């Protein structure tokens, strides 16, 4: 059995619960069937197992280095990436026209889950590139797509997202990178779009420099100076630019170096296989221009993508998918940790069970999986990781509906659901599957704390996920400050409708246990809605949002209870798998869901403890 | 201001709350005063700051290595240790007769806290040695004390505790190391005690090998074969032995190598400055004996400490202190992380506050300490680390009462309180101050995830603490399975008496807020007692103990609420410090204490979810 993910569980989620086969009725997926889905999963599992997993520890021990000129990393990363690209997986979800397979997003994400579970550091390169390509596909011109996207479909180029700066992490309105219109006469009419020169520094750019591909396409948020020559304050001033590491000549071949250079690598606690960079744009190290027939000059040459001032909107277009992707990464790190802990617990003899007459020291030791506290830790992990995987795949399924559902209203509904579920799909796995990794260490005891076992790396790798792509705190503000009130609560209403449909199914059935879950969930859901109203009725946004992180966490547990209820309703039969699903659901409702009650009490009290705390009092 | 610990907070706890000066009325501490306490704290803070903290990261980056013969480590460790020993701190709490200062334990622990906060890896060497020395002082003969303890008082020797084996971690009854009576005619009459040869492997031995001292005194749990030549099963067969790395000749000088050798270093996620070893006893690499006038032979020469079969009892004698020490280490890692996060939050500008009209993007950014969610994270850290430090010092104060209170009943009461509080003092900081370290990373955002900032190391270092000196699960079993029922509930009753005394003081006062806390705490305490009874009324120990970890956590939060109530009652005035204490107490009661309610509900339901989970269902 694989220690990366459970294929059995994936099959259950995809076919028994999420009815992914029904997508084949849609024109886009007409060539597909369960067999083609399984073939893609087979390929992914095989490459992940054979090419990604084996160098996961080696990447951790040998992080990329920078000699001032080039980045060096272990060769296995490039080899794994080539296997991934050769299998066509860069374009798995894309149009046939782009060389893609037109796989449904939900199947594509299930495939990607294998690579992230096997080696999150190496997997980051293709996944960032896929995000970059999707953004350009949505907002770029055909010429931009030809120049920047097609080479990414084969791995010839890779891509990044350049948002943060040293002084602008969570606060993107403070981005200071300037994009100055190119003064040359052809600049506005450049076939790749309006041409600019960029100047500034970008921080935390994953995959910002490496030798894994011929070129790197940076998608950069920058500000075009306003009429007064100054950048427009706030996010309204942000525009999006494509800035290749190497200039693409008019004949399509690669030319000179653009003026974007690596200023340094960040050295992290985990996730070490992925280069994380500080990039300098326009510092004059290179003076590009000649290969485009221009005067060589300092300044990174970039082409505007979409409209000026619409940069953040374009980025947000991709944000849901990027955030769900981060959540999926967190989930599968938790999942593989769980499987490793389970394997260890089944094979490690230690101690004896308590009997009515105490313990018999002369009896042989038992495998630790038989100790109730170890079972608690394993069952908790199972509940976290299978719940989180369910939520991530549910969201991926919604992406398919958003783009391909034949009914327009259903497409709009899917988009609303994605809007409100995304902060949960990102934050919940980042919190609880990280906790699962901690439990996986604990199951291993002292061995888990050593670098001879992989669980400590999962824990270190996973600690990034509550930070990047919007911190935990940012997700809370997004959920409570934006998503639950957007369009007069339309997203919240869409979620409620789905939830009520499932509660109704559970209540209408004959399974008393499911009815019980429905009742418990219904109680919390009503309370959550009431608390949401009370928070917004305060009339003071600072007060409303003060405890947004707690709101996020309570909302998350309620959503996960709903995910577990759905899984419990979807599972059939009485085999070990089905029993395990039911027991994990029992665990979630008995052990986890009740923790939201004191959280909701706190929120309902409009508690000002943290708001009242004065800086001088610390 | 120091980023290691708050001296202001220490002063408050020691003098305003725990009335440590009153200890000076006892004969043992008659030479002491607040001035001598402060002098010891000054020295500790200075050496910790100047000699321990500067190489904390360097130790992490350059962990000890083993060339097959010797262990190599950075020289700063030895230099720090020399400064520590030269200041007389190895013997700070010991008798004058041993070269000690006769400092009260509570002051000694406050001193030690500085070293652990500065560099937990280097601090581990003296602290393990102090534990070793204390055990020998309690159970060794005068000759053993002269031979093995006195050299540890100056750092000439260092000591270890050798309990675990590869196949016996939590389950000490499975220790397989054999101690065979030495066949030489003088063996029983050896001036150092009955002499044995030891054979076996010991795992996870911290400080098990190094070149920091002339000799290493291992205290080893091993089994003497019974009349049938076989080791006695269970813990009843365990005896304790002193096994020096180098033989001490009859004239007191150091002689040949004993037959205990390093088989390998464990490579850990954190705590890297401390060597953690697999030691082989009696594999024949050395054949000691000649320096004692014996025939050279394989087998590590060791001397019995205390009585045969009483090894675990002797170890348990020191277990409370060792476990409180682990808790203190966890606490101060959390504490220094908090201070680092606070410093960062006060200096890092990012974003703007929400006003009635939204945010003004043209205004300058504010320090992140002004964001409510950052304040939440800082206040949570403050509540965890100051609460935990309070509990650890409270326990240290009890150690003083246990040993030096003039009233015999009070000494017995202190021992009972220590028995029941130790699992909390060990586990609660290991859980919540580790969580504080995670919050410290989160406050730093991406920077906190890099190795350029110290918080990620604190987080990695602290992850050991829920594992060693009895895992979290073991602490739960100890608390629920042993401590709350010992002597017909005498320890629980002793704790209740103390708690009721404090509740009474709060209720009798005029502060409505304190009265409110007392009411909240009273409710939870009564519930906890009721749940304890319900658990034991089940009649099935497996069922009673199935959810012992949850019991431990709920019990811990109740105890910490009591600690916070005491601190809130002890703090006077209205300066920033006092306001901060009160706000942290408010936080604990509003945000933390209510989380025990669903835990107590779960326990009261005698939930069998984890017990019912079958191995095949995972």
Structure explained in plain terms:
The structure is a homodimer of 618-residue chains. The first copy, chain A, is α+β, with helices and mostly antiparallel strands and 618 residues long. Chain A has three domains: 7-308, Butyryl-CoA Dehydrogenase, subunit A, domain 2, CATH 2.40.110.20; 309-349 and 366-470, Butyryl-CoA Dehydrogenase, subunit A, domain 3; 472-612, Four Helix Bundle (Hemerythrin (Met), subunit A) (Up-down Bundle), CATH 1.20.120. In chain A, 53% of the residues lie in helices and 11% in strands. Chain A contains 19 helices and twelve strands. In chain A, strands 3, 4, 5, 6, 7, 10, 11 and 12 form an eight-stranded mixed β-sheet that branches. In chain A, a hairpin with a 5-residue loop joins strand 8 and strand 9. The interface between A and B is large, with 104 and 104 residues.
Number of helices of chain A: 19
Instruction: For the record, give the distance between the C-alpha atoms at the N and C termini of chain A, rounded to a whole number.
Output: 51 Å
Radius of gyration of CA atoms of chain A, rounded to a whole number: 25 Å
User: For the largest interface in this structure, which chains are involved and how many residues does each contribute?
Assistant: A-B, 104 and 104 residues
């Amino acid at each position: 059995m694989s220690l990366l993910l459970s294929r059995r569980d994936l099959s259950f989620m995809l076919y028994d619960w999420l009815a992914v086969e029904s997508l084949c009725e849609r024109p886009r997926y007409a060539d597909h069937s369960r067999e083609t889905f399984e073939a893609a999963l087979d390929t992914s599992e095989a490459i992940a197992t054979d090419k990604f997993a084996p160098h996961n520890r080696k990447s951790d021990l040998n992080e990329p280095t920078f000699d001032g000129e080039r980045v060096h990393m272990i060769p296995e990363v490039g080899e794994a990436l080539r296997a991934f690209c050769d299998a066509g997986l860069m374009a798995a979800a894309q149009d046939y026209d782009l060389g893609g397979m037109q796989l449904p997003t939900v199947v594509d994400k299930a495939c990607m889950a294998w690579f992230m579970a096997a080696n999150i550091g190496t997997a980051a390169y293709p996944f960032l590139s896929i995000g970059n390509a999707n953004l350009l596909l949505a907002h770029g011109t055909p010429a931009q797509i030809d120049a920047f996207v097609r080479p990414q479909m084969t791995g010839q180029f890779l891509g990044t997202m350049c948002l943060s700066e040293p002084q602008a992490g969570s606060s993107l309105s403070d981005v200071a990178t300037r994009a100055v219109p190119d003064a040359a006469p052809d600049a506005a009419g450049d076939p790749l779009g309006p041409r600019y020169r960029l100047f500034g520094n970008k921080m935390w750019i994953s995959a910002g420099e490496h030798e894994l591909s011929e070129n790197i396409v940076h998608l950069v948020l920058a500000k075009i100076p306003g009429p007064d020559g100054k950048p427009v304050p706030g996010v309204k001033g942000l525009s999006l630019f494509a800035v290749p590491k190497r200039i693409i000549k008019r004949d399509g071949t690669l030319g000179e170096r653009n003026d974007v250079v690596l200023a340094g690598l960040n050295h992290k606690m985990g996730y070490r296989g992925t280069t994380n960079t500080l990039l300098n744009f326009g510092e004059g190290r290179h003076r590009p221009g000649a290969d485009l027939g221009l005067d060589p000059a300092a300044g990174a040459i970039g082409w505007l993508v979409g409209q000026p001032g619409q940069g953040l909107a374009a980025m947000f277009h991709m944000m849901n998918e990027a955030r769900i992707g981060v959540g999926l990464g967190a989930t599968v790190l938790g999942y593989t940790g769980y499987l490793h802990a389970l394997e260890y617990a089944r094979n490690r003899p230690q101690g004896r069970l308590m009997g009515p007459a105490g313990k018999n020291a002369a009896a042989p030791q038992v495998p630790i999986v038989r100790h109730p506290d170890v079972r608690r830790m394993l069952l908790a992990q199972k509940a976290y990781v299978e719940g989180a995987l369910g939520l991530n795949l549910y969201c991926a399924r919604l992406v398919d509906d958003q783009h391909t559902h034949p009914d327009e209203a259903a497409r709009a509904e899917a988009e609303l659901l994605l809007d409100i579920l995304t902060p949960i799909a990102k934050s919940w796995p980042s919190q609880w599957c990280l906790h699962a990794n901690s439990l996986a260490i604990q199951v291993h005891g002292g061995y888990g704390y050593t670098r001879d076992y992989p669980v400590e790396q999962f824990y270190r790798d996973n600690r990034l996920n509550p930070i990047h792509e919007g911190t935990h705190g940012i997700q809370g503000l997004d959920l409570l400050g934006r998503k639950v009130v957007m369009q007069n609560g339309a997203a919240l209403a869409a979620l409620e409708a789905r939830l009520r449909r499932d509660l109704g199914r559970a209540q209408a059935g004959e399974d008393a246990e499911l009815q019980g879950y429905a009742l418990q969930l219904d109680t919390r859901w009503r309370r959550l809605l009431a608390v949401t109203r009370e928070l917004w009725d305060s009339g003071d946004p600072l007060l409303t949002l003060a405890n947004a992180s707690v709101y996020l966490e309570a909302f998350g547990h309620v959503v996960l209870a709903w995910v577990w209820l759905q899984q419990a309703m979807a599972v059939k039969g009485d085999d070990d798998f089905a029993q395990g699903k039911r027991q994990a659901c029992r665990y979630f409702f008995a052990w986890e869901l009740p923790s939201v009650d004191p959280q909701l009490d706190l929120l309902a009290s409009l508690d000002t403890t943290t708001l009242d705390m004065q800086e001088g009092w610390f």
